[in-house]
Amino acid sequence: MSIVATYFFSICLSQKISKEQYIQTYKDFAIREMKRMGIPASITLAQGLLETESGNSDLVKRSNNHFGIKCKSSWTAEGVSHDDDAPGECFRSYKDAEGSYRDHSNYLRGSDRYAFLFQLDPRDYRGWAYGLKKAGYATNPRYPEILIKNIEDNNLQQYTLSAVNDVPIFNASRYKDDPAEEKEIKKIIKNTSPGEDKILITTVAEHKITINGSMAIFAAKGRSLLAIATENNINLEKLLEFNDRQNDGLLEKDQNIFLEKKSREGASDFYMVAQNESLYDVAQKNGIRLQSLLEYNNINEDDRIYTGTRLYLRPPAKTGNASAVKLSEPVAQQEKTAELKTHEVQPKEGLYTISKKYGITVQQLKEWNNLEGDDLKIGQQLIISK
Within this chain, do residues 106 and 168 fall inside the same structural domain, yes or no? Predict the structure, then answer.
């Protein structure tokens, strides 16, 4: 358990903590578990907020149980007695909060009744919220609405987005909710060779997801396009066409592979190019046809683009600009054509506060400013308008 988490748990025994304190204390556990087991970090934190009354419930203070998981017959570790649906029910007890977060992930992954949730896009927090209720996680009829409100009011989705490309896939039947069995799992992983380890745990997910309205998978480096086409019952030539590719071959890096035609327009007006991204990368990341991207920006496929370049994802006329701008140059040069609106970061301001102030999303702020994390510096200039 981290020093910060230990500190906050100790003070919550004697005084009430806020939602913000709970989120900041445990968000790293939620992100880590998303990368380990695949439960969206936003859902994990929203459940923790609800089940622990933001870290202030009697149960969590006595047991470190952040998710209201009851003992059941498979639980062989310690438990505490707590009144819930019936008086004196047995609830699982943990040495620390980290143990509770890990067991929560194992519990969902190892149960057949929750298996359908892992077919959802991890960014689909609404689907997860209603799915948990459907699977019987809670008896409260308003359970999904409460989770969704927690996520949207506290911008918990930002933590899911920070880990979405690291969601694993593996043999869920190996992951049970008994601590003794979990130790056996660790032993299996430790004793496998590097090649075998990749069979058990893969670093990228190939669940079907929707990007800008088109079905896709996130495929790992080294995957064969022919194999992807065969597995998804798609003609190879069609798959190549959907992904703006001329030839079959092995993927040179992890990337989105579309199983149907991409849209001609992006979900947002423009995109800020990240480090080492090509025009093809931008098209795949945003689910837009490469030819459309080239046309909107009056550029060629072999043109050089720089980190921070703004690329239109829609026809310039629709973004409020009279004509397209040559974008194979740094943002500083583009500002001669289109002036940017910026915001200077003030003390105690975060991405969520700034996004609310200007009526935009945290994700837009990150994309427009090429931010990889959530940390801001006082005085930092942020682009807050397209």
Answer: yes
